[in-house]
Amino acid sequence: MKSSRLLAGLSAVIAVGALAGCATTDSGSGSGSDSGSGGTTSQTLTTIIGNDIDSLDPQAQGTTSVMQIVDMMVEELTAIDATGTAQPELAESWETSEDGKTWTFKLKSGVKFSDGAAFDAEAAKFSLDRLLSPDTYKAAPNELAVIDSVEATDASTLTITTKTPFPALAQALSLPIAGVISPDSVTAEGNTAEQIKVPVGTGPYVYDSYTAGDHITMTRNDAYWGEEPAYQTQTYRFVTDASARMAALQSGDAQVIASPPASSLSQLENSAEQDLLLFDSSYSVQIGFNTQNSKNPKLNDPKVRQALSLAIDRDTVIEKVLFGTGTQLTGPLPKSVAGNADAEMPGYDPDQARQLLAEAGASDLKLTMVSSDGRFLNDYKVAQAVAGYLRDVGVEVTLENPTDFTTYLAGVMVDPKEATSDLRLIGWGSIYLDASQALLQFRSDQVPPNGFNGTYFSDEKYDELVLKGNGTIDAAEREAAYAEAQEYLVSQAPTMWLYQVKTAVATSSGVTGVEGLANNMFVTTWATPAS
């Protein structure tokens, strides 16, 4: 397997349970006959996640559970290792100019897309240009908006020029939004230049079929340039209810499930039939405020937001709602993110919360909250707990019923004028483990529809500090700018940081090689049937 694709060693994985042979059927649940004593198999691996796919277009990716699926079909120029350092993937090597604004990438030769077209610098340029184009469906270039131009110097050389220095460019090019697709595929059935529904990349798997609200199926790319994956077919099903996912694992209808019920983790730890992967991620779960709120303008006051944050007992949420599968934050960013800084985070003080709300004339708040269900471990139950704590300090909270994740995301990542909720559960982190991406969340240029700043926080001082860190070549100066930005962010309280995510994945003991990653993804690409 490719260590750069797996980000070897990136995760702290707890694998509990003996690896024993599994009993399977012929219903697409890890079954089939082996094609030999080792290597590939004709079996199907079935994985269940808690949310549907919002988009298969590589340039429109914003959800890690979908990114990990797209990444099975589409690859990027770079990958990251355990330290968040960029490693070669479709690019073999790169160098940077002295001013930090010109990057020259040497690309792998002999690589083909799954439609048979050759991968080259023109194809890489095509995909990056498409990411930067305002005409591309929901394209979100995020940090890569720093790119000024992309040139195919020759077939194996790509030159990228940035508007300002950006030391993290090589890491950022590992983002799934920078995935390289076959230029010819934009005219294939189901696709247009504006929107890709059937991604055609260089990855180890190929798109087969997708049924909205139910599943996506991929088949092995037998012409893949790297090591061949073991399973002939991989199917990802979408099931919101955690108990239903667990039942499918226990019955053999699935071999891998994301976010099993938190109450079942102890059972999984002691099971001979299932294994548990439990690993820290670079993500945090938050309750974001609508900070440009015309219906509840008092939420636009940082003092009111600080007061509400004091009402939440995070220790109890982690212990009772998550059964210990969360970690207290010591700053806005998890420790796994380069550039993280400690800050004085809000504790639990309901009396002070009431006092500060009274002083701000906000004791009569009536707020609407929305939350996903199944995207993160017990996410809706976390929202219910937060609503209860806010009610305890006198806030009238209406928690809306959950919707499927695609609908939920479309409802919270809207223009501020279209916002209908005051509080929304948000998960955010860094895919490439760097503050440049993690701090992007609150930048004013990322307010929807331009990005994923679902709090609508817009502050010139904060923007200046983050952009200073992004564009500073000197490492110490860069960290200092990021630290100041984080301290200032906590003082403005655009969100209620709750906890660092611990990602839980359960597998059948008949499957080995499922990898948990610190960027909140898990990889089934290189899984194999246990012998």
Written description of the protein model:
The structure is a single chain. The protein is α+β, with helices and mostly antiparallel strands. The protein has two domains: 237 residues, D-Maltodextrin-Binding Protein, domain 2 (3-Layer(aba) Sandwich); 224 residues, Dipeptide-binding Protein, Domain 3 (Dipeptide-binding Protein, domain 3). Helix content is 23%, strand content 23%. The chain contains 14 helices and 21 strands. Strands 1, 8, 9, 10, 11, 12, 13, 14, 15, 16 and 17 form an eleven-stranded mixed sheet that branches. Helix 7 packs antiparallel against helix 9 and helix 13 runs antiparallel to helix 14. The longest helix has 18 residues. The N terminus is likely disordered.
Features:
single chain; 531 residues; alpha+beta; D-Maltodextrin-Binding Protein, domain 2; eleven-stranded mixed sheet; four-stranded antiparallel sheet; 21 strands; 23% helix; disordered N terminus
Layout: helices, strands, pairs:
Elements: H1 3-6, E1 41-49, H2 64-70, E2 78-80, E3 86-88, E4 91-96, E5 102-107, H3 121-132, E6 147-154, E7 157-162, H4 169-172, E8 205-211, E9 215-220, E10 231-238, H5 242-251, E11 256-258, H6 265-269, E12 274-289, H7 302-309, H8 314-321, E13 326-327, H9 350-359, E14 366-370, H10 379-392, E15 396-399, H11 405-412, E16 423-428, H12 435-438, H13 460-470, H14 475-492, E17 495-508, E18 511-512, E19 515-516, E20 522-523, E21 528-529
Parallel strand pairs: 1-10, 1-11, 14-15, 14-16
Antiparallel strand pairs: 2-3, 4-5, 5-7, 6-7, 8-9, 9-10, 11-17, 12-16, 12-17, 13-17, 18-21, 19-20
Helix pairs in contact: 7-9, 13-14
